Amino acid sequence: MRRQRSFPGLASLGVIVAVSLAGWTPSGATAPRKVETQTITVDAPKLGGAGMALEVHRGAEGLPPAVAKTREAILEAAYSGDLARLKAVMQRNETMPSLSVNEIDDPIAYLKSQSGDGEGLELLAILTDILEASWVKVGAGTPQEMIVWPSYAARGVEGLTPADLVELYKIVTSSDYEEMKSAQKYIFYTVGIGPDGTWHYFKLND
Fold first, then answer.
1. What strands, in cross-sheet order, belong to the sheet with 14-21?
2. For 151-169, what is each residue's pLDDT tens digit?
């Protein structure tokens, strides 16, 4: 069971979300089943204004090439189980990606301290689950433009379809989801990568 943490999430604002699906799969894996495209209305306040359209995607299709390259590098490092390889990906940035609201001196030591197994492997598994979930671009055309995983960090957890919940349950438990519904926000880990491929954060949604 995922460990619970509380922190503020995105506030709410009406947004139309169109879902397009294309799966990323590790080498040798079976491609995921595609589901019907959805158009739903969600509350997601800090994203720009009522009626703003968001496209929610799955997999690498639609990602800017630099973002797709960074995502692939993170996934390869995480699947290796080697925190040093993940740190090497982090060090490609001019500044290290944020792992917490607080400043972190040693990312490997921090990931180990936050991981249930004490070795950081649980967080590497969570990182792969996050990056294989749906994503959304926020702040398009602004200096704050970001590709965000999972999409629920931006779109919220209201009105999810059974297909959405199957995806979400790969990241959190059903009891976590009930807590999120009560809080009216996604309250677990999220990843942000800028359009130039800069990895900005892997941290609890704030």
1. 39-43, 14-21, 52-58, 135-138, 146-149, 189-193, 199-204
2. 999 888 988 889 999 999 9
The helix (run of H) or strand (run of E) holding residue 77 is helix 65-80
Q: Is the CA virtual torsion 149, 153, 155, 157 positive or negative?
A: positive
Distance CA 57, CA 138 (A): 12
Residue closest to 132 by CA, chosen among 37, 26, 3, 40 = 26
Token duo for residue 117? 């197994």
Closest CA to 164 of 38, 71, 6, 75: 38
Find, among 188, 181, 127, the residue nearest to 153 by Cα: 188
What is the C-alpha separation between 168 and 132, in angstroms, rounded? 11
pTM: 0.78
**Band (25; pLDDT cuts 50, 70, 90):** very low
Percent of the chain with pLDDT over 70: 74
- Burial environment of residue 28 by CB neighbours within 10 A (0 to 12, 13 to 18, 19 or more): exposed
Give pLDDT tens digits for 194-203: 999 999 999 9
